Amino acid sequence: MFMARNDRxxxxxEQGGARPRRTVFGRLFYWGAVLAVWGLxxxxxxxxxxxxxxxxxxxxYEVDRQPxxxxxxxxxxxxxxxxxxxxxxxxLDALPDYVPAAFVAIEDRRFYHHPGFDPIGMSRAMAxxxxxxxxxxxxxxxxxxxxxxxxxxPDQNMKRKxxxxxxxxxxxxxxxxxxxxxxxxxxxxxxAGAYGIESASQRYFDKSADKLTVGEAAxxxxxxxxxxxxxxxxxxxxxxxxxxxxxxxxxxxxxxxPAQREAAVAEPVRVSKTLASQHAQYFIDWLDKQIRTLVxxxxxxxxVETTLDLTLQTDAERAVRRILDRDxxxxxxxxxxxxxxxxxxxxxxxxxxxxxDSQFNxxxxxxxxxxxxxxPFVYLAAVEAGYTPQTPVVDQxxxxxxxxxxxxxxxxxxxxxxxxxxxxxxxxVAAYVADQVGRDSVARAARRLGISSEIGLxxxxxxxxxxxxxxxxAQAYDAFANGGRRVDAYGISRIRTPSGxxxxxxxxxxxxxxxxxxxxxYMNQMLRGVVTSGSGRSAAIGGRDIAGKTGTTSDYKDxxxxxxxxxxxxxxxxxxxxxxxxxxxxxxxxxAAIWRGFMEAALPKLAVQAIPNxxxxxxxxxxxxxxxxLMGQVEDPYATATPYDAPPPVIIDGQAQQPVQxxxxxxxxxxxxxxxxxxQQERRPDALFF
Length: 690
Known about the structure:
The chain has helices at about 25-50, 100-105, 120-130, 140-150, 160-175, 175-185, 195-205, 215-225, 235-250, 260-265, 280-295, 310-325, 375-385, 420-425, 425-435, 440-450, 470-480, 520-535, 590-600, 625-630, and strands at about 70, 80-85, 85, 195, 300-305, 335-340, 345-350, 370, 390-395, 415, 465-470, 490-495, 500-505, 545-550, 560-565, 570-575. Strands 2-1-5-12-13 form a 5-stranded mixed sheet, covered by helices on one side. Strands 7-6-16-15-14 form a 5-stranded antiparallel sheet, with helices on both faces. Helix content is about 35%, strand content about 10%. The protein is elongated, with a radius of gyration of 37 Å. Strand 15 (about 560-565) and strand 16 form a beta hairpin. The protein folds into 3 domains: about 25-55; about 85-265, Biosynthetic peptidoglycan transglycosylase-like (Penicillin binding protein transpeptidase fold); about 315-620, DD-peptidase/beta-lactamase superfamily (Beta-lactamase, 3-Layer(aba) Sandwich). The longest helix has 28 residues, at about 25-50. It is built from 20 helices and 16 strands. It is α+β, with helices and mostly antiparallel strands.
């Protein structure tokens, strides 16, 4: 009996012949097929896992954006659009060929040759990132970017990247290359709230996209890498460098010729730093903060009808720019201007030399010492206590609580009238009068007219050692211009939806009468004298009833002019942000020049009248002589070449300082004639701030 052999020898087929061995090619084919099957299975499972929660592509044409706020001036002209701005889709055929070519050149050179993703670009980006040890280059195609922008969150993870690839292939299967590029250009974010090329063109260049130049197209294409980093508004040099890179890429891919590139480089790109223009962006910032308080967080598009007059705003911008350019050698670096009508409507606002360079609003948020522009509050308290423009006063050395104020000229003029002291901006008289009527009375007068900043009650307060904003000063002086009524400055007349539903309307002013007569009459007469015969003569405008007051701090860090006519007031400040002194710039110089330049352009456009007298004057009251007679021979307070600084003020700390009689006193101060101040009762100790 034989046992069967395990070794059967060579393989044989059923006919008994030997089975042939597979060739090398056969084996490769076999195992390739096996791997392909398993790869296909893996790919199907892989895609199924990641495609399971793909977003709904039916939202392709829906736009998810934040509400926009459109700001109109008082006549309905567009000032600005804040928030998300969308424009109607642009037709790709309507654009110059170099516009879409700029985006293809810098974002996706092989756009017309890949199926939605670019393996070459992805490999190159991966190699660059590995060499750098960080992400320095992206490999996403325009189609992938569109998929991400339309459907996905900005999360950076493997799942999102795979979904991006799936959606990119889907887009390529569903749309033509031309349609994908059109969708991309109409939906991509360009910064500054602008979505889509038409919106970006309007936002940055104030023109439609079909009128873009080669340089402008390159600048917009360069933005997409990082809209804030390459913003032509805040990063102009970096944006220009990036635009040059785009131009070079366009030449390399044949989108433009070298000659076109050179022409684009030679032609400056004029960038509007905000939508349509630079106008009134400080003003818009001021309102933007208020809207949330008035109507809450916007949930729908809104239209804000403002009090601003764009024509006057342009006049203000030109006046400020002209003097800043003229006096930059004197250290005049910044300026602010606020103009109000008699009801407190803000008609123009300048918050600084350049909104593009600095968005800090000096008209509203800066607090600078008022200098002699504060003195009207001193003299208002005085005339309300019984002084008149004819009251004799003496310009002589005076010491109050150890503090001795000195005049700008360094001289003392002796006896004069109160009106002359106002026009001549005499410091010794203002300090003495404030101490006599009570610095708390001065603070109350300023509060009543609209000063809301902290007011110190130290003796130097009388000379403007109080930090205020130009908006506050314009608001307070408005009472002199409108017949004595207190106003609260405002810039929003109405807020509505685009369909017309009213959300908010500004109500009537509740300020009431802040200055009665005859004090108002006296103040207007004396402040007219500042312009006709005193420190504000450079602000005079022929044929106009003008009044106002200059202000200069002793170290030339701040200079002011606040002036008005009937129902219209403007406050102007100049100085430096670092609070360093200017080169002997006074309130009668740069600020008065800005004020006059603005008013000369603005007043012909306004139906202004003479400064109103205000409430009825007391029966039987006889007005004083015309202001010119009251002034007499007023000395120019800025005639002396070299002023000297006053010593640091002594701050009182809870105990009211009794007035110290001047030592030595050349003559006793005469009491005000006819209508002396009411006898003062012993005053309570002043608090440090009022």
